[in-house]
Design goal:
Bound molecules: ligand AGV, calcium ion
Largest sheet: 9 strands, mixed
Structural class: alpha/beta
Strand order of the largest sheet: 3-2-1-4-5-6-9-7-8
Helix content: 40-55%
Order of helices and strands: HEHEHEHHHEHEHHEHHHHEEEH
Strand content: 15-25%
Distance between the termini: 59 Å
Shape: globular
Radius of gyration: 21 Å
Length: 338
């Protein structure tokens, strides 16, 4: 009888050690995140927010040379990480070429951020730059991590796609992809010669990667123009942020958004909270609603990069449709208070 009891006891102990304890730890562990951005103003704002989020372990930052010049965006990323005491977080540079490059004026715009006083006075550490190009960096992080990794993308999705095309066995290591990209039931924002205006820019930059991403069987949350259209950057919000400028991060964020003011309200464009909204989805998914959609991507003109519904194709993607705006603005104002 005593033998039997001790047998049950040791069996229970084994179950605890092998299954239950790691399980409860896994629930408490911060979510592992790789952030792939393309250096626009709202990409940099997103990085600032990410450094302030609880329950997130930032494994690395990848820079895609799309809505930026690579050197500028690398420098901004290093300085933002330094400001947040995240010197251990590597920055990997993308080396992929666009099918459709962004307008040069847009790419040059964010370099002004590196000339802000706070940024000039922050000494970046170039040794934080990974020796691996971004797609290899992503593959190596996926391979060495035991827990699956969430990939947040606020530019074109080429680096992740390239990593998974070269190493398809790593697909299972991706927990979730949160991508700012696409325009499903609304017009796009590409306004170039011969294009019908149906595509969103991140999806248009490399339409083949966009198409491939949707076919990889990943859990994708698409923060498309469908939802970002509801959150333009308004002066009212900027005033609220300015009122808390005693917090250094709020001060920096205020200056970043000020550089976009010539597009608010634009003759053609408004600056939206595109990437900032996608980043917030990580922290407050409950204030968003989504719709599961079978989605495809056009790779030919005049709709190159358009994300379209294609019932029956089996590529189920979760398209984010609405956000509770009050909750969203309150959340980011709070994060910018550090
Ligand atoms: O299409 C939205 C994406 C987002 O990732 N980017 C900007 C955000 O970083 C491209 C873009 C669309 N309109 C723009 C853009 C504009 N007026 N200026 C700069 N970039
Ligand atoms: Ca972007």
């Amino acid at each position: 009888m005593r033998y039997c009891t001790s047998l049950i006891y040791s069996a229970w102990l084994t179950i605890c050690i092998v299954f239950l304890i790691p399980l409860s730890q896994a629930q408490n562990d911060p979510r592992k995140v790789i952030f792939d951005h393309d250096g626009g103003i709202d990409d940099l704002l997103s990085l600032m927010l990410l450094t302030q989020m609880e329950d997130i372990e930032l494994l690395g930052v990848c820079v895609t040379p799309a809505d930026c010049f690579l050197e500028d965006a690398t420098l901004s990323s290093l300085k933002i990480l330094k400001l947040a005491n995240k010197e251990a977080c590597p920055v990997a540079q993308g080396n992929t070429r666009p099918v459709n490059p962004f307008p040069t004026e847009w790419r040059a715009q964010p370099m002004v951020v590196n000339a802000f006083p706070q940024m000039l006075l922050t000494e970046e550490d170039p040794s934080q730059i990974s020796t691996l190009p971004a797609h290899d960096f992503i593959a190596s992080q996926l391979r060495k991590s035991i827990a699956p990794i969430t990939v947040l993308i606020t530019g074109p999705c080429t680096n992740l796609v390239k990593a998974l095309q070269l190493h398809p066995e790593l697909v299972d290591k991706v927990q979730e992809v949160i991508w700012m990209g696409g325009a499903v039931d609304v017009p796009g924002n590409v306004a170039t010669h011969k294009h019908a205006g149906t595509a969103e820019w991140n999806a248009h930059w490399d339409p083949f990667a966009s198409k491939a991403l949707l076919g990889m069987g990943l859990d994708i949350k698409l923060i498309s123009l469908d939802v970002t259209n509801s959150v333009p950057v308004r002066r009212e919000f900027l005033k609220q942020l300015a009122k808390q400028a005693e917090y250094p991060l709020s001060n920096l964020a205020s200056q970043c958004w000020a550089t976009t003011i010539n597009t608010i309200p634009g003759y053609e464009y408004t600056y939206f909270m595109w990437d900032v909204l996608a980043t917030s989805y990580l922290g407050i998914p409950n204030v968003f609603t989504t719709e599961r959609v079978e989605l495809a991507v056009h790779t030919d003109l005049p709709n190159e990069g358009q994300t379209i519904r294609l019932p029956g194709n089996g590529q189920w993607i979760e398209v984010v449709k609405t956000v509770n705006k009050e909750d969203f603005y309150a959340y980011i104002l709070n994060l910018f208070r550090g």
